Amino acid sequence: MSRKPVEDRTTIIEIEGVSFSYGGHDILSDVNFTLSKREFAGMVGPNGGGKTTLLKLMLGLLKPATGTITVLGSSPLDARRHIGYMPQHAQIDPSFPARVLDIVLTGRLTGGRLMRYSSGDRERAEIAIAEVGLSEKRTSMFSSLSGGQRQRTLIARALVSDPKLLLLDEPTANLDVSMEAQLHRLLRKLNERMAIVLVSHDIGFVSEYATKVICVKKTVVLHATSELCGDTLREMYGERIRVVRHDHDEDGRATGDCRG
Amino acid sequence: MNEFMRAVAEYTFMRNALLSGLLASVACGVVGTLVVVRRIAFIAGGIAHCVLGGIGAAVYLQTVRGWQWFDPLYGALLSALLAAVVIGIVSMKAKERTDTVIGAVWAIGMATGVLFLSRTPGYGGDLVGYLFGNILMVRTSDLWLLGILDLVVLVSVLIYYDQLMAVAFDEEYARTRGIPVDLFFIGLLLLTALTIVLLVTAVGIVMMIALLTIPAAIAGRFATKLSHMMIWGAILTIVFTTTGLALSYSPGLPAGATVIVLSGVAYLLVVLVTAPGGRLRFLPVRRHDS
Q: Measured on CA atoms in the order B164, B165, B166, B167, is the torsion positive or negative?
């Protein structure tokens, strides 16, 4: 494998023949896909279909049973300092005594270091907080924030290490329509300098904003966003799905049409 | 209260009691905060009760086998560290029912202590001291060991504060940053073990879990940062141990139990008058905008 600097790579993720099982159940089998620089992939699929598992495999939190995962030309474990990760915020104890700034700073940590945060770390954290539009809240407690602000805090934490790849797990959960538009504007801006994989239940959000759709249901099927229509969804979720096209303009007014 | 001040001025055992209370309090506030935010009070309880096994073994070896140098405090230290490693590994490896295993280790540790003490002639009275605290029995030589333990705990937390905070806030994320999360978990349990040894003489094995959690829990209702929670936790523990010692002196009440009841009452009052986040109840709530 060639050793190009991370900045010059055009292929960000290469997944070949990956399978993973847990407790005797196959969660994923024979997954293949690649993701290039500047791509914005939406990952959709039914609950238990393996979306979060696939994300954790890319982060090196889980090891595949077979197949290889290459991130930025190396193993996920070696690449992880270039990966920004935003977990589902439901897994975090909201009563934890920490301010926005303290939380974002944790994104500056790496394995080997012993030193406390430097002034450079603090500057980087301030920049990331400004980028997600939370500067006014930088010394507010996490517990005092709204759901959307908590999500933006966790995105800032993912950005503070200057990642080349951003992995977001359900960033659209609990967002209202205007916050969703705000999140989209932010992600589009970030996409200019990093590849993005976004896991979501919200097919509407993905079909509207992503450049590539990764459908995960034990295995993976790739679609261009425009292909995401009734047939592919029926294939993935089963018969009982109805596609409702429901667009919103920036102010959150509904504009779309509905198709049964 | 005057009588207490006079006793402190006059008697070495009172000064030792006060000083060991102060030493225990500092580590207790700091480590107690981590125990509370990581929700490992049950694990801490397990380690605490295992300490009786080590104390029992030490007393037995000292009295029956003639190992004069093997102080019960050393036995407590060894068994606490051993229990921390065993319980830590079990909680990481066993995916299910770790509470069952911790509960079993908890009781087995105590039972071992009871068996050893039953084989040691004339030690029935000491059992009560270890279970419920014997702060008035602290010797000047013990203070040195307690001081070293305190120093180890504080320096470790000071060096690794950023990592400890990151792991406590979001363990999985810390893992993706390459932080050795499992090592930090075992490390935290070892620090908890050292703190528990500091607390054995102050409030005893059975009641220490209250002192490890209550001051930190009170501080947690007001603190905006983990470090503030640690500092206020330590200050509150100092207030509780010192006041408890003073209040118990004149009427001759057991000091450990007085400290625990005092901190329990304080916690109850704080829970009643404040909402989580430190706001006073019965005041209009100011809504934050989203």
A: positive
Q: B165 contacts in A (CB within 8 Å)?
A: 98, 102, 106
Averaged pLDDT for residues A215-229: 69
Cβ distance B172 to A81 less than 8 Å, yes or no, reads no
| Interchain pair B161, A107: CB under 8 A | no
What is the C-alpha separation between A55 and A42, in angstroms, rounded?
12
Structure tokens at B112: 């071992």
pLDDT score of A87 more than 80: yes
Residues of chain B in contact with residue A146, where contact means CB-CB under 8 angstroms, are 288-290
Query: Shortest CB distance from A92 goes to which of B165, B170, B220?
Result: B170
Q: Which residues of chain B have a CB within 8 Å of the CB of A122?
A: none
Q: Are B27 and B212 in contact (CB under 8 A)?
A: no
Considering the domain boundaries, does residue B80 fall inside one? yes
Report how many domains make up chain B: 1
DSSP code at position B120: S
Residue where the block lists tokens 């959307």: A148
CATH number of the domain where residue B109 is located? 1.10.3470.10
Best mutation target, A57, A102, A152, to test chain B (most B CBs within 10 A): A102
Question: pLDDT band for position A228 (50/70/90)?
Answer: low
> Residue A36: enclosing H or E segment and its boundaries?
strand A25-36
A 42-101 → B contacts, CB under 8 A: 59-61, 77, 80-81, 83, 85, 87, 91-93, 95-99
Q: Do B174 and A109 touch (CB under 8 A)?
A: yes
- The complex's ipTM works out to 0.85
Residue B122 structural domain: 2-274
- B279: in domain: no
Which portions of chain B are predicted below pLDDT 70?
Answer: 1, 95-96, 123-125, 276-279, 281-290
* Confidence (pTM): 0.87
Average pLDDT over residues A124-143: 93
pLDDT of A116 reads 84
In a domain, B286, yes or no: no
Nearest 5°: the CA angle A149, A151, A154 is 110
Rounded to 10°, the helix B181-220/B72-93 angle is 110
How many C-beta neighbours within 10 Å does residue A188 have? 12
What span, in angstroms and rounded, lies between the C-alpha atoms of A244 and A8?
Answer: 41
Report whether pLDDT(A135) > 80. yes
Sign of the alpha-carbon torsion through A221, A224, A225, A231: negative
Q: Does any domain span residue B65? A: yes
